[in-house]
Amino acid sequence: MTSRCPTVNRAVRVVNGLNFPSAFTWDAAGNLYILESHNRAGADAEAEDRRVSTGGAIDRVPPRRPETPPNGDTAIGLTFHDGWLYFSHEQKDGTFSISRVQPAGGTVEPVLQGVPVTGDHDVNHLYFGADGTLYFGVGSATNSGVVASADPVNQKW
């Protein structure tokens, strides 16, 4: 007769003190990356990436150079692929782009630019297929086909 241990499910806090995490991903070594978007206190707050090492240390991914994207207000999607962090972000003209940056920081490289987004659902859910193809979602203008006039997000369209 064999004995079996019961399965124990529990939640474990990995990181604390985030303001508005919008996406997370892991690299090949098991480090966790968290994208915090602008949707937090302070109108001048910028999107930033935080890294949580496998040992539990938390630090910022080095700042991006100011002349590189994103130059809009929102950064939403994040994934790791082939040594790069890929993220989706808004541009000043209201379109969305997907860019990539090395986890050590540096110049942001555009991957895809000018995706029109005119509703509630921005470019998000970045995913690489087995063949290396990048897939992403861009959704509808509303959840139900009805625009809620009192919703501040809908004021832009």
Q: Can you tell me about this structure?
A:
0% of the residues lie in helices and 35% in strands. It is mostly beta strands and 157 residues long. The chain has one domain: Tachylectin-2, Chain A. The strands form three sheets. It has a four-stranded antiparallel β-sheet, with no helix packed on it. The protein has a four-stranded antiparallel β-sheet with strand order 5-6-7-8, with no helix packed on it. It has a two-stranded antiparallel sheet with strand order 9-10. Residues 39-45 have low confidence and may be disordered.
CATH architecture: 5 Propeller
Shape estimate: globular
Question: In terms of structural class, how would the helical and strand content be classed?
Answer: mainly beta
Give the radius of gyration.
18 Å
Q: Order of strands side by side in the largest beta sheet?
A: 1-2-3-4
H/E order of the elements?
EEEEEEEEEE
CATH topology: Tachylectin-2, Chain A
- Range of strand content: 35-45%
How many domains make up the coordinates?
A: 1
Fraction of helical residues = under 10%
- What's the CATH H-level superfamily name? Glycosyl hydrolase domain, family 43
Spatial gap, N to C terminus? 66 Å
CATH class: Mainly Beta
Give the mean pLDDT. 75
Number of strands: 10
Given as residue ranges, the uncertain stretches (5+ residues, pLDDT < 50) are: 39-45
Count the DSSP helices: 0
Described by strand count, sense and barrel closure, the largest sheet is: 4 strands, antiparallel
